[in-house]
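Here we describe the complex-level prediction in full. Unlike the single-chain runs in Section 2.1, the two entities below were treated as one system.
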Amino acid sequence: MSRVSFFIYLFCLFLVFSCEKDLNTAIDVFKKPCFNCILNPDSVITATVSMSKSITNEGMPDKILDAVIELKEEGKPSLFLKHIGNGKYKTDHKPSVGTKYSVEISIPNYLTLKATTIVPIRPEVKYIKGYLKPKEEIKSRYSSLPFYPYTFEINDKPGLNRYWVYSMEKYIGNNYKWDFRSMYYGPDFIQYDDFNKETDAGFLNGFYFLYYLRILDSGIGSNVFQVNEECPVDQNYRYFFMDTDEHYDKYLKSTIKQAMNDGDNLLFNEPVQIYSNIENGLGIFGSAAITSFKL
Amino acid sequence: MRIFLYILFIFPMLVFAQGQVTVSGIISDQNSGERLIGASIYSPVSKLGVSANSYGFFSIKLPKGSNAIQASYVGYQTSSVTINLRKDTVLNFTLKSSLILKEFTVKGTQSRNAHPYFSTLNMVKLDMAKMGDIPAILGERDLLKSIQFLPGIKGGAENTAGFNVRGGSSDQNLILLDGVPVYNVYHLMGFFSVFNGEAIKNAELFKGGIPARYGGHLSSVLDVSMKEGNLKKPEGTFTISPVAGSFTLEGPIKKDTASYIISVRRTFIDFPLMLIQKMQKQPYIGGYYFYDLNAKANWMLNQKNRIYLSFYSGLDRNFFTGNDRNLKQSFRYQWGNTTTVLRWNSTITPKLFSNTSLYFSSFNNTQRTKAKEGDAVNLFKTTSKLNEWSFKSDFDFYVSPEHVVRFGGKVSLMAFSPDILQQRNDETETNFTQETRKEAFAGEVYLEDAMEWGRMNANVGLRTAYYGIEGKTYLSFEPRIALNWTLKPDLTISASYMRNSQNLHLLTNSSLGLPTDLWVASTKNIAPQKADQYSLGIEKHIARKYTFGLEGYYKTLKNVTRFNEGAAFLSGRDRNWENNVSVGEGEAYGSEFMFRKENARLNWMLAYTLSWSNQRFDDINRGRWFPFKYDRRHDFSALVDYKLKSKKSGERKISLAFVFKSGSQVTINDTETEGVMLPGFEYYASPEYVDKFRVRQTYENPNNFKMPSFHHLDLNYSVKKYRNSGRGHEWSFSGYNIYNHLNPWMTYKEDGVAKQLSIFPFIPSVSYRYKW
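The structure predicted for the assembly as a whole is:
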């Protein structure tokens, strides 16, 4: 190798290897207690309390075992959730729909965490099952089997509601595996939130909604929202119509956005901040009421 | 209010001097006929002086009788005439270029500041000759990178042409080319701007107290003028650098009456790339290039009227084509601007000058994929377009040497078509998202008054803007005031206030000038952006060589937009952009410091900015304030150039540039918390997904991580040779980042580890310029 070639080679190496290095992204994170509790009128109240941690530390967040959780139901005496182990807390009480709840969590050496929520009323939904149709008539997606058309009607309640629709499917004979059924289309008059809309040429209109369909409600009330589905005969289906309070709604959106962001794996995506309504801490205190159908 | 208006506009008109005549005319270059923007006219007897406007036009009132009148301009020999004035007179000056005598020309002339109403830190006239001496990466001189050495202007990612002024985002800069807004001013991921230095005559940058004649953007105005073309003789320039070459030709169409200039620049990195791919017999051939084409022609209809026709087209194209067995595929990703303007300059009376323009500006971004197999054809195309058609008229009324009133207006029709999807095959042709196309109408009128009262210089004005879209109208009143008070001949205090509004929003994922950036209009849901800025400064000249400036500013912004977290047009999701942006407010404050020495042999400038910039959005970060992405606390730059040799036959010069900037802010997840299982997942038997949501990653506030500081030292050595015939050539040898500091250009994660990518280590380059 001539001297000139050697220097050119050395120079190229210099350019190539000088371009990338690890970045120390350690940030001093103030640990905060994290309280999670979603009230559901069909379930007893459970919650978890843990401590946030720096992302650079290995392992799961530490559980907090000595929190005192006082739950106040509008116009009733306070309830206290009992620690049942591993940072989980419970009371046998079921929340009531349309009721405001506030919570205070006392943890030694930390400011008291506070949050409130109003439990929504269950969505009023009915469905109409159509006649069995041949596979050729399916519009929404590819199918090799006949299908039943279903029309779900949500009778909108007065005020601003935050409806979420999701469904699960399972092949008949498969006893253990339920899968999310992508929400793929709705009539044009449904004002849907496209935050989780994914482009896919395999679906009608070229898109579907990841996991959930979030319906935008104008708040006027007295509308009837329709969701149409085409269900091939080889599967079982579960349909869920959920109304959430404003906090759980934002929490869900931020979580799903983050999941989608991770899936995109794009260099320029900005991370998503997970929504929290916990004063002096992190986590979520929200509520949801669900109407479900097994088809 | 009436008193205010009286003081500003009426009173100055009443102080007309009696027994005077008006001398008006054009100041131009003797060799080329190019009009000299901002050239000075001075009368030593009456001690009155004025500056030429953007078209080289001046108008001055002088006493009747014998008067000596001097015309001067930096880099030119002063021209003097003595004339007996009896009536209004037209007097044109042609100045002879004097590169070697530059220092004597400057010192020996009562040179006048063309903008005495603005502090040096609020308004900068960019010296295009000096721009050529600033060290440039890969030998490509760039206007937008050069201005980043100025205080108060912060660059985006390393070596990108995008810039942020006083806490504003890059879309808040109004960038005009011959009076026409250019929307996407970047090539090649922002590494180069669309401005071809060979075609540019002049550039002025306003950061504060922006005159009322400019509007439509919040933070700054960069007004770039193209050369007009040599009226006397044909000329040409050829330049070549490691990445691009340019060719410029100019000359008279009819001597002293009409001229043209045409300038083309193109990168050639695609040629060797394609050659290698062909030699390797690869089935697919791909590459990338960009080009700029500037063309301009002008006709002097008579002494009072002149018509200009300017055209600019720039395009970036990333492409590949291939043929694999029966399958033919092609992919094209291209984006670019086209502007064209027809202008008419008219000297209506010796005191009234008008400029009327009809222009079109367009930004187009297209991604097209085509596959053909036999007779079957599949086409997928996405386009984003912004088209603007405008008619505007501006008038300069020279009431007296101390008093110029400017007024005018503009009407515009804008059409926005962001993110239009088209899919076509043999069976179907589908167009998605057509509904996102919107049309907007805008109208603006302004009145501006530039006055000199003894030691006080003032530029005050009012701009009124109307904007209508989707049946909704917005009206904004934008007062502007710039005051400059000369306490002593060498000491000036300045103050300014301005309000601006902006109907356009740039939705961007990054500062890289990517083609995925979308220009969208304010809608019935998203109101125009607004900003108020106050500044106060002091400027001191020492021994006529040194200039020291210090200025503080405070700016508030309203209705600024930001992508919602997680939203990204890069993902290809079909989105309605209005659902994916947040609207909020911002504030920026800081102080700028500048110390400059200018003499012919050694020139240097030190600039330092200390600043803060924050934003707040209701639905981000629980409505709390957080730092702006380019909230760089410290920003220091130094420029030095030294002439080793300067003779009539040539020049050798060495220049040095150093930049230090605090790191920009990025958002990274810093915290992990326990999460709530999402609804439905209790039925979902796949454990990996259930686990996935057990822990959430989040962060305390957006832009929570400060990137490492950014600094580099660059050197340039240039040799210029001139001949009497006007021919000459120039060699430039540059070294960028000579101590090879790895500045972060971007960050990414690989296997959970954050990494910084640095793409500009030490880079030597050489460029050549030939002029005939």
